[in-house]
Design brief:
7 helices, about 90% helix, disordered N terminus
């Protein structure tokens, strides 16, 4: 209990600059944890939604029927968004270029590539902030430490007989800034690495679906072109 009171006392007695550094680091840590929880839920939901849609897509359902189901929802994310973008563009182009399967598929794949880019961007939301917190927090804490130690030695030079007890509190409060910086940085780095890997896995899954869906549409375009001929 005494240690806790001592640390609290050091925080209260710290210089303005060190207190400001600590306040910034605490704010960054709070924001970081908030975004960690949000990204964790968003990525978990994305994995579940992708599995559900893939099961529905490969169940043999008619693509037009599936498109109507997806379009009826208020919003679409992940594979649903890619499917909707691809099928919508395919149907539009097929009406005007039914005898040119290559042109139809080029436009369809372009629409799905744009959709894939948007989905990856959505999945990566807040990750740059976590990377920033993880990289700069230790340096901000180190700045507070250097400033506190510098002030301690300046005060030490102003007295004739210096003792360790005179500089120990200043050095201790300065080191707390480094500790808070590490406390903010370590979870952010761990979360960033974990979420980045999850985004890479999802992006690969999305890209594979785009290729497989494009092959299905290509076969339909060629078959319809043969029937028209």
């Amino acid at each position: 209990m005494a240690g806790e009171i001592s640390i609290l006392g050091l925080l209260i007695e710290a210089s303005f600059v060190v207190q400001l550094v600590m306040l910034i680091l605490v704010a960054m840590s709070v924001m970081s944890w908030t975004m960690i929880f949000r990204r964790r839920k968003a990525l978990s939901d994305a994995v579940v939604d992708a599995k559900k849609f893939e099961d529905r897509f490969w169940s043999g359902v008619d693509l037009a029927k599936l498109y109507n189901e997806v379009s009826a929802r208020a919003s679409n994310n992940g594979l649903e968004a890619l499917f909707k973008a691809g099928f919508k563009e395919f149907a539009r182009l097929h009406k005007t270029n039914s005898r040119q399967p290559a042109a139809v598929m080029e436009g369809t794949q372009r629409a799905m590539r744009v959709g894939l880019s948007r989905e990856v961007e959505r999945l990566e939301m807040h990750l740059p902030f976590l990377a920033t917190v993880g990289s700069i927090s230790p340096y901000i804490g180190l700045f507070g430490t250097v400033w506190g130690i510098m002030n301690s030695f300046i005060a030490l030079g102003a007295v004739e007989q210096a003792t360790l007890a005179m500089v120990a509190p200043g050095i201790a409060e300065a080191l707390i800034a480094t500790a808070i910086g590490l406390f903010a940085a370590i979870p952010a780095v761990i979360a960033y690495n974990k979420f980045s890997h999850q985004v890479e896995v999802l992006e690969s899954s999305y890209a594979n679906f785009v290729e497989e869906f494009a092959n299905i549409l290509h076969r339909q375009a060629v078959a319809n072109n043969g029937d028209a001929a």
